[in-house]
Design a protein that fits this description.
It contains 2 helices and no strands. By secondary structure, it is an all-alpha fold. It has one domain: 23S rRNA-intervening sequence (de novo design (two linked rop proteins), Up-down Bundle), CATH 1.20.1440.60. The longest helix is centred in the N-terminal third of the chain and has 32 residues. The two termini are 21 Å apart. The model has no long low-confidence stretch (mean pLDDT 91).
């Protein structure tokens, strides 16, 4: 029982991380479309790629 409870807590924490990084992707993508310069667009979309990579990492831990 204790092992299942710890596993459930782990899944909940990872799920929260997925939610944070996953929703950040959308926010940063939207910011990228409002960027004021080409350099700013690139910077914002690089952040999107980093958040996508982080989300992929957290999802990989759940599999």
């Amino acid at each position: 029982m204790n092992g299942r409870l710890q596993n459930r807590r782990f899944q909940i924490q990872i799920g929260k991380q997925v939610l944070r990084s996953g929703t950040s992707v959308g926010a940063q993508y939207r910011e990228g479309h409002r960027a004021k310069s080409d350099a700013d667009v690139i910077n914002k979309f690089e952040g999107v790629l980093q958040e996508l990579d982080e989300t992929d990492y957290w999802l990989g831990l759940l599999v």
